[in-house]
Write a structure and sequence with these properties.
extended, 6 helices, mainly alpha, single chain
């Protein structure tokens, strides 16, 4: 039996006070009152945990843009062109005239990845990224970034 059902039954069936239940189980009284109200409105089914997913997301990419990206991806592939995020962004910029503008390349890439159209290729990781630049002791390892630059010949004027 989960905690919500136990607390509701302890109050409704046994008649135990809410403040006593809250103190005994380390929960807030207002939560118990919410549980009781949910139980009275919908029975034991209403006590089941609810989704914590937000009802909306104001910064989510509109579905029209997602559909346009996927449509462009398919049409570019059929024509034999590159169908990457940068190419789609270029074509989408000329297609969208509503003032919002085309999404960024990274947004288009995320859309393609979420839809399963981007296949990860771990073999493209450079081998140099596998070796860390670190030392066990201070001054044990040094790194410099030097560019050889020839200075212009300067004429020195000496006063004699």
């Amino acid at each position: 039996m989960d905690m919500a059902r136990y607390l509701v039954e302890a109050h409704v069936l046994e008649g135990r006070p809410v403040s006593e239940l809250a103190a005994a189980h380390g929960v807030h009284r207002s939560w118990i009152y919410k549980l009781i109200a949910r139980y009275q409105a919908g029975g034991y089914e209403a006590l089941e945990p609810r989704s914590r997913r937000p009802r909306s997301c104001k910064h989510q990419t509109p579905i029209e843009i997602v559909e346009a990206v996927l449509r462009l991806r398919v049409s570019l592939q059929k024509e034999g062109h590159d169908a990457g995020a940068a190419t789609i962004a270029y074509h989408l910029a000329s297609e969208i005239d509503d003032g919002t503008g085309a999404p960024s390349v990274s947004t288009i890439w995320r859309i393609l990845k979420r839809e399963g159209l981007v296949v990860p290729q771990p073999q493209k990781r450079p081998h140099s990224s596998l070796t860390r630049f670190e030392a066990d002791l201070p001054n044990e390892m040094w790194q410099t970034d030097i560019t050889h630059w020839q200075l212009a010949h300067t004429v020195s004027t000496s006063r004699s």
